[in-house]
Amino acid sequence: MSNIFLQTTFLERFQEYQVPIGDWFAAFIDWLTDTFNAQFDAIRSGISWLVELLADVLGLFPFWALALVIAVLAWRLAGRGEAIFAFLGVLLIANIGLWPATVSTLALIITATLIALLIGVPLGILGAKFGPVNTVLRPLLDLMQTMPAFVYLIPAVFFFRIGAVPAVFATIIFAMPPAIRLTSLGIRQVPQELIEAGEAFGSNWYQLLFKVQLPQALPTIMAGINQCIMLSLSMVVIASMIGAGGLGSVVLTGIDRLNVGMGFEGGLAVVIIAIILDRLTQGKGSSKGYRN
Asked: pTM of the predicted model, to two decimals?
């Protein structure tokens, strides 16, 4: 008993010298918000415009037309079975009344994935080509992948307020690490003999990268793109907590109302979209053209 009392007393005295990490981070976020307010507004306007544009473009077509387009893509990239699943899956989503929410989710996911890849793939290339860049990137990627996804929502709301834009921001941070890691890994795994052969034929840095290393690394890069899309989809419910809408809000409403059917239908639609996108990207990554 006296031992427990001594430990408690020591802990209380030790905590008197607590490192105020939370206060420091909050002060840093406040400084960023005050200093770069105009830049955050510009980014917010740009991302919002892109999400709305994609939603408008997808909304121009009836569900059956997009079902046919997705089925044809699946047939060309993955096979007949995947094409049938994609066509019936889209029809099922429309049948249960979730097509408008699916269009909103697709617009958000496509925007987040495009931005994540535009940043992630070049960073992966730099990480593979330059050791110091990789040294800096590794702890940052570990932090991005292990930090709970909910934590990203707090600074996102401070920077961009409520809506689809902070959801895109949080999704980008959560989904980007696989694109960086697998791009870097794919380039570093290119056989040294191929690089030496390219150098022997007089290829410069850019020719080696774009004509030897990137084509050889493309299956691994496509795996990174696949993981980026899957992680983006896994954020739809969390993103709906800050007003992202879409299928995530259907699941969230089902939870709030204890409506099991509504929650299951929203989750099922997310799963169908995830399987379709997974098969499309896997089929693209494993095609004979990339292996050769």
From this structure: 0.84
